[in-house]
Amino acid sequence: MTHHHHGPAAPTQPGVGRVALVGSPNAGKTTLFNGLTGLRAKTGNYPGVTVARYEGAVETTAGPVVVEDLPGAYSLDPISPDEEIVAAVLDEADSLSGVLLVIDATNLRRGLGLVAQVMQAGLPTAVVLTFVDELVRRGGRVDHEALSRALGVNVIPVVAGERRGVEALREVLADPGSWDEPPFAPPTEPDAVTGWAGSVLKSAHYSQPDPDSRTGRLDSILLHPIWGTVIFFATMYLFFQTIFVVAAPLQGWIEEGFAWLGEIARTNIPIGWLSSFVADALIGGVGGVLVFLPQIALLFVLISLLEGTGYLSRAAYLMDRIMSTAGLEGRAFVALLSSLACAIPGIMATRTLPSAKDRLATMMAAPLMTCSARLPVYVLLVGMLVSPELGWGPFRAQGTIMFGLYLLGAASAMTAAWFFKRVIGRSSVGLPFYMEMPSYRLPKLKTVGISVWDSCKAFLRKVTSIILLTTVVLWTLLNLPVRSTSDLLEAGVDPSDQVAVTAYTLDHSAAAWIGHAVEPVFEPLGFDWRVNVGVLSSLAAREVFVSTLGQIASASDPENPAEALATMTHDSGPHEGEPVFTAPTIAALLIFFVYAMQCMATLGVMRRETGTWKWSLIAFGYLSVAAWLMALLAHTVVGLFV
Amino acid sequence: MKSTLHPQRVDGEPFALRWVAEVDLPVGRVVNAPGTIGPMLEYGVLTKVLVERGGVWTWLDGAQKWTEHGPRIRDALGVSLELDGWEVEEGSAELLRLIATEVLEGELKSYVASHGGHITVEGATATSLRLDFGGACEDCPAAGATLHDRIEAAVRARYPLLESVTRVNDGHGATSGWLGLPVPGRGR
Q: How far is B37 from chain A (nearest CA, A)?
């Protein structure tokens, strides 16, 4: 992984040619990139933005050339942050030796608009024509040689799954300096561009493909106002069933593995505090979060499958109708959809919204969408709430509750957007919402694999940075102040009874003091001081809740931390002796996590995107209040039934 | 202004550009043009302008650059083509040769190559064309005739004054058999 701090296009290897891949989303750019670079791609970030940056070396006849896969862009007008990056990279033309434009042959007319813009940069340019096979299958036509003459640049057709085109490209990449050069750049004024593109298409004997009959038939059902919506919700329901049913055994194995490691650490590390640090903080805490890697991986497998087949765009289209009842447009849904992975790209995607008011309303709603950081917390708590056996046939109660939580998050996001839209005021003009409906395609296994791998890497990075750091801080707070033998004797604890010592240290630690201090706030929700510590620590990142409870549980019963957690009782106050994790309390916790704004990174991005802390504070304030009130409601309602 | 046109380079002539556009003027050399193209021709920015069916050929003064003048000429041509007042000297051997070369090196190149040959323009008048078939299709008179017809049709579509296309031998041996005979033109 490389981080570039010196501008968007700083070359990684001086003296080596550098070619940028530019193309619209769905043009097959990433597939081509993977085909060219294999798995030798490196990921990094653009300075100041969290849009991933990919580059990889391609072996050509003239030695290696670095190819950079720029984010998908329909045009170079910087409407979205992605397009801003592409424009910025092409602006720094000096660092590039050429541009490969990836254009979807089934959508050539619109692609030429991008060609015209990119050619303004004056860099050696070549066009890679993708989906030519699909164009022909759907009765369309293009003469790529005539297209090359009309554009004045090399045009290389590639067919998915065929090595030939990729090999031809490898040859072309060897020397961008020798590429055909147009006499001068195409026009820039929109009408003139339309005329230019029309003339080029005519010269290339281009005929549009028929609407894809397969896609048409599928869309007549999947985009149907009633059936489409029913299918959408059924798909989502299956989605969450899968996460529980498929990932559970994997998770079990990892859990056993960590329990085994913890045992080894406890028995083999002679120094008491170090043994506790390794076993409780590292293995019990951080390991407790790592256990959820299968769920995270599966979530992204499913998301990238839905995206790769083209179904996600349909979901956005269906949701556009529902969004409009909240007074928001489809673009806002795209932003909210991104928030399913993480609220940060979601908030950044609001940059596509032309209205500042819509943008703020969407930003306020984005943290309510169930991001992947909530997944470990939900899995842990839902697992404690209902047994995995409960269910009917293949449908498990756990997956159903999970689906309900995602639904609640989405519904709350809509409500929040609607509310903020009202408060902030109506936007003056609604610009037309344009979204591409790509043809249904079989997703490329490699593309899915890479996307899942990247997400897992990001999760692991988070676990080894913020989560590890917070866990270490918490371990310290949970074990301080250090108790001397005389302290213990004074308190009536036998210093040789390890369990009793740990329990005493924990119960009188700095963390316990903090947990007790906030008791008045969380007492109505049924939380005890340990849960309070977990909730407070999760302000840094939601997963820390899991690692904190993991630490406490593994300190109180090293043999069986899961059991310790489930049977944990209130150790003081009016409920002393009663179990902590009752159904009403777990429900309250789950609902608390649906609403609470427990992500400092999101608040930071809000500040950056709005230019003021005001909206970060408003989001934090309203979400904290909502979390508390809704959790109280859940506690009360579930309490009535138990 | 919405003009449907785009420029294409001309092989071997860096100062020439062929503008593919909707043009329905008599084919030949432009003596005078309306709009800004007129003065450009008059003051020598453009040294020569030829018109074909569906295109305009322009030659830039050797001291100028396309990157500098290209966009201006594009805009000017877009406007001028909408206007009346074009004066064209009908018929041009040079234009016919250029079109024929372009057809052979461009749209029909891979077709000709698939017949195992390389065809070049041997000579041209304002109404006739002589081609050197360079060994293409010697063994296959039928395919040869098809090829011949396709070339003739492609050139005539852009140069309606074309009356006849004849073949000369590829040079190894005398004009023998029907290959050397002029093919009757199908001029209008």
A: 18
Most confident of A225-239, A342-356, A520-534, B109-123: A520-534
A277: helix, coil or strand? helix
Q: Which residue has the higher pLDDT, B157 or A61?
A: B157
| Three-class SS state of B98 | helix
Mutate to test the interface with B, among A120, A143, A149 (most CBs of B within 10 A): A149
Q: Which positions 202-221 of A are in contact with B (Cβ < 8 Å)?
A: 202-203
Predicted confidence at residue B139, as pLDDT, reads: 57
Asked if B71 reaches chain A (Cβ–Cβ under 8 Å), the answer is yes
Q: Using CA atoms, how far apart are residues A423 and A621, in angstroms rounded to an integer?
A: 16
Phi, psi of A557 (to 5 degrees): -145, 90
Give this prediction's pTM. Answer: 0.62
Q: Mark yes or no for CB contact B70/A184 under 8 Å.
A: yes
Instruction: Tokens for A111, please give them.
Output: 């692609």
B109/A contact by beta carbon, under 8 A: yes
Percent of chain A clearing pLDDT 70 (strictly above) = 88
Which ranges in chain B are annotated with CATH 3.30.1370?
5-90
Strand-pair partners of B30 = B88
Residues of A507-546 as b/e, b for ≥16 C-beta within 10 angstroms? bebebbeebbeeeeebeebbbbbbbbbbbbbbbbbbbbbb
* Residue A7: pLDDT band with limits 50, 70, 90: very low
pLDDT computed for residue B171 by the predictor: 45
Q: Given the DSSP bridges, would you call strands A52-60 and A42-45 parallel, antiparallel or unpaired?
A: antiparallel
Mean pLDDT of A84-109: 85
- How far apart are alpha carbons B131 and A42 in whole angstroms? 56
What is the 8-class DSSP label of residue A579?
A: B
Residues of A in contact with B52 (CB under 8 A): none
CATH 3.30.300.130 in chain B: give the residue spans: 93-180
| Structural domains in chain A plus CATH codes | 2-210 (3.40.50.300), 227-424 (no CATH), 462-641 (no CATH)
Say whether A152 and B7 touch across the interface (CB within 8 A).
yes
Interface check for A193 against chain B (CB to CB < 8 A): the answer is no
Q: Which long-range contacts (CB under 8 A, 24 or more apart) does A264-272 make?
A: A266/A558
User: Is some CB atom of chain A closer than 8 A to the CB atom of B21?
Assistant: yes
Please identify every stretch of chain B with a pLDDT value under 70, giving residue numbers as ranges: 1-2, 116, 135-144, 169-188
Q: Which residue has the higher pLDDT, A355 or A265?
A: A265
Q: Which CATH architecture has domain B93-180?
A: 2-Layer Sandwich (3.30)
Positive or negative, the Cα torsion across A470, A476, A477, A479? positive
Q: A321's torsion region: left (phi>0), alpha (psi -120 to 50) or beta? A: alpha
Do A200 and B6 make contact, defined as CB atoms within 8 angstroms? yes
Phi then psi for residue A489, to 5 deg, are: -65, -40
Name the H helices within A106-226: 108-119, 132-137, 144-151, 163-173, 190-203, 213-222
Structure tokens at B125: 């008048």
Minimum-distance CB partner of A199 among B4, B17, B110: B4
Sign of CA dihedral A444, A449, A452, A458: negative
Q: How high is the pLDDT of residue A335?
A: 74
ipTM reported for the complex, 2 dp: 0.83
Quick check: B4 and A198 CB within 8 A?
yes
Q: Quick check: A120 contacting B, CB < 8 Å?
A: no
Kindly report the CATH class assigned to B5-90: alpha beta
Option in A152, A184, A198 nearest B71 (CB): A184
Nearest-CA residue of chain B relative to A144? B107
- Scored b (16 or more CB within 10 A) or e, A602-614 reads bbebbeebbeeee
